[in-house]
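Weekend entry, working from home. Most of the wet-lab plans are on hold until the incubator is repaired, so I used the time to fold the two sequences that have been sitting in the queue since the last round of cloning. Logging both here for the record. First:
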Amino acid sequence: MTDNHDRGLQFDLATLIGRRRALSLLGGAGLTLVACAPSTTTTANSTTPTTGTSSAADGSPLETIPEETAGPFPGDGSNGPNALTQSGIVRSDIRSSFGSSTRTAEGVQLTIDLTVQNPDGKPYAGAAVYLWHCDINGDYSMYSDRVKNENFLRGVQEADSSGKLKFVSVFPGAYSGRWPHIHFEVYPSLAEATKAGNKITTSQLALPETTCKEVYGTTGYTQSVQNMSRTSLKQDMVFRDGTDQQMATMSGNVQSGYTASLTFAVES
């Protein structure tokens, strides 16, 4: 496997063309999403969480989060190595590799708070989320040449009785052709996730532009500044059809780290 994100871009595009065609045939019926929360971000010196109201905060119905491509580097066994069946994949802190390697990914700390719900707005207790993303250089562990022997920035967590779960990670870099993002898959249970079976959905979380620019102004993210300047949400193959259900709400700063929050619904 070569470290070639242009190749990965073509892979994603081919997958998404099929999804967009299906949407056009259906006329988008039942697939238009209701916004979870306004997506704003704090300034670099603020640690006050952004405000906003979720359409599911009071148990109101939600449309399910859109299905997206897992990309060429999923790590669930569908395109090569399978991280899900490895001992150690169930963890909240995904900054370091587990097993034979203990290397820790560099970058600004990012806590990812997710709330999984049913379309009726009720918590999806017991659902499991497998989450992964690229590192500060835009590389994916288990695939990209520089980190092929690592498995950091990948992990599984189980939703509690409120449908909530959390990962501690680092802010991903921006690579050529894609807006900064985080991948995740949802499974009906921890048991199903750790055997890579009966997946409910695959989607992606988008990161706000203001926060990205703040982070990419710090040490180590120089290449991300250039890569992000060459794309936009309107150009991105995944997010150009809208990010109402996928844009994270941010709080925090570069000194103490950021928190990205997202509430979303999936079918049980």
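Second, folded right after the first finished:
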Amino acid sequence: MGKTIGNNIKLFRKNKGFTQEELADLLSVTPQAVSKWESENSLPDTSMLIPLAQVLGVSTDALLGYDSLSENEEVIARVKETVIGMKNSDEGRAQKALRISEYLATETTLNPGCFEIIKDYVQETANLSMYADPVLENSFPGEEERLEKLYKDAIRKGAYLIGHCADRGLIERTHFAVAWIYIHMKDFDNARAHINVLPSISPGCIAEKISMELTYFESGFEKMKVDIANNSVLLFDMTASFLNTIAQDYGWNGERDEALRMINWCEGIVRAYASMKDAISMDHYLRIRRSLAFFRLVAVKRSGDSEGAVKLYNDFKDEIGREDLTDEQKKRVIELLDNDIAHYGKYT
């Protein structure tokens, strides 16, 4: 237990952003005592466990390492495999989303300390809320009570994760997903409350940027190049997500010429970025290419030009056929586009 609690104190302290001195002040002990706990040279007195857990924002079980990590890993693997199977079924997208959310609702009740599964549950329920939104797809008329039960359960479990989990990444993903649930519930004040605690790119003070500089000054340019490569992929994923949102909203809501101009601009950015293949996730590249093609089709089809939409589709197939992609990748991107057309065709 000594090794576990020492590592956990250090992990939870860093996740809270405390120095050893700051944690010591909050607990009215010396910084040397905290240092000894974390280096495993001594254990905190039992009377300190509850104050420690409270200050670090975790349960005493988590602090002591009684979170059944290996058991959680088995649960996570089993649940994720089941969800993948559900996603690969022949059901419609909306029905799959509902079935997955209800399955995860049960699993998170049975495994309340498994934060990874709670995060997945909140994310999948956010996805479900998009299909259920009457302004968007309205896939579940008459099922409002069933959906509201899921929304409230996901929000409650998400709040538990946010309050007790030590993993900042899981917390941020959960805030993001809960915000989406509130948006589709039309509870914009609560949505904004979750959005406001998320990290923002607007100041430019992001961890990845300064971390690359730290690597440079600490280990030199060759080591920094590894960070640059990894962060370039992350930046592409984030950029692709932004561009997808822009193209989606213009495709569904903008005037034809305006929409096509914006979507073409988005595609120009993607193409420029993808000129260096090492800087992109190929899966995400294929998905954003299909998204941009689809929303271009939506804009043209909404204008009443069905023949123009067919021409765009065929032009895109020819274009993908000429790209430096494997046969499997070319097949994949067209399958993704065809799936979108099959699902959303009724809305255009």
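Plan for Monday: verify the second prediction. The chain has three domains: 2-64, 69-195, 209-347.
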